[in-house]
Specification:
336 residues; seven-stranded mixed beta sheet; single chain; globular; 45% helix; transmembrane helix; alpha/beta; Spore Coat Polysaccharide Biosynthesis Protein SpsA, Chain A
Length: 336
């Protein structure tokens, strides 16, 4: 039986060293990313006018709003799915602008280092609708969805800023659900909130608010149709999210979220995660700043070509571990 004890001891030592190594790696990587929020690739983030062949200076989130709403669409190798989603989006925005002359908009497409014809498709829409209504940010290389959205948010002009996926999984008309709820809460804040103190000069963009589109109402149906291992992985991920960011939002990963300009300014100048788990960091930061979060059910459909796969789960868990270590140790400072 002596050999069993030796094997057990060796296993315990190996597990201990592995845990220590993982902990060191998490702390080291969290420390390395402590200034990620301050790294704005201003040299890469440019608007190019394909009609005049001139570069247009990028606005900044700290500037006053010039449009009513900005729609930020991150795109990585979306040559096939982007045209349909953009056609639907532009048709909706144009129809709404024709009915309401005070309605102004812009669509900001962030090309996250695509290797296909995404760049060409995006600029075709700029040519068609002019650079005042459609703009393209070129990041030069692939940083991740979170960074693409952050760049779009930091260089948008809207009072309201909506992030939505390039596949059109959520109908663009559902933005009105989020928009209406933000207006309701903002009016209450302006009239009765402590921060507003009844100041009638405040605009909706001045009130920090976030509205999260949610697919939680579709969960029961999804559980019945997905493979058991996918359900197991997603349930486990939700538990980790709960432990990391706390309760409050049932569906953190829906790519349909709206922010007032004041909220976007606080959140996207602090966010550090560049890929899938930036949504969870947004929830954490909303809670830290005391930004009200409204979760609203939206229509959603599965679109072929999803870039999320089972291998994405370990990457998500890694990012959550970095976020937890970064904020809990104080390495990730939050700018107010």
């Amino acid at each position: 039986m002596g050999w069993l004890w030796i094997i057990t001891e060796l296993l315990v030592i190996a597990v201990t060293f592995a845990a220590l190594g993982l902990g060191f790696a998490i702390i080291f990587e969290s420390f390395r990313r402590r200034h990620n929020n301050a790294h704005v690739e201003s040299g890469n983030a440019v608007f190019e006018d394909p009609n005049s062949l001139k570069q247009v200076p990028c606005p900044n989130i700290s500037d006053p709003a010039e449009k009513y709403i900005s729609l930020i669409i991150p795109a990585f190798n979306e040559e096939l799915r982007l045209p349909g989603a953009l056609d639907e989006t532009m048709n909706y925005l144009q129809q709404r602008a024709a009915k309401d002359k005070s309605f102004s908009y812009e669509v900001v497409i962030v090309d996250d280092g695509s290797a296909d014809g995404t760049n060409r498709v995006a600029f075709d829409f700029v040519k068609k609708y002019t650079i005042d209504n459609v703009r393209v940010i070129l990041l030069g290389r692939n940083y991740g969805k979170g960074e693409a959205i952050r760049q779009g948010m930091l260089h948008s002009r809207g009072e309201l800023l909506l992030m939505l996926d390039a596949d059109g999984a959520t109908k663009v008309t559902d933005l009105e659900k989020l928009e209406n709820q933000i207006h309701v809460v903002a009016m209450k804040e302006i009239q009765f909130g402590d921060s507003a103190t009844g100041d009638s000069s405040l605009r909706i963009s001045d009130i920090p608010l976030a509205a999260f589109g949610s697919r939680a109402h579709l969960e029961e149906k999804a559980l019945a149709t997905r493979k058991w291992y996918r359900n197991f992985l997603m349930k486990g991920f939700h538990v980790v999210v709960l432990l990391t960011a706390g309760p409050g939002i049932r569906d953190t990963q829906c790519g349909f979220k709206m922010f007032t300009r004041a909220a976007a300014r606080k959140l996207f100048t602090n966010i550090r995660l560049k890929r899938w788990c930036f949504d969870v960091e947004l929830v954490y930061l909303c809670k830290w700043f005391g930004i009200p979060m409204i979760e609203i059910s939206v229509n959603w459909s599965e679109i072929p070509g999803s870039k999320v796969n089972p291998l994405s789960i370990p990457n998500m868990l890694w990012e959550l571990a970095l976020m937890s270590a970064g904020y809990r140790t104080g390495m990730w400072k939050i700018s107010t």
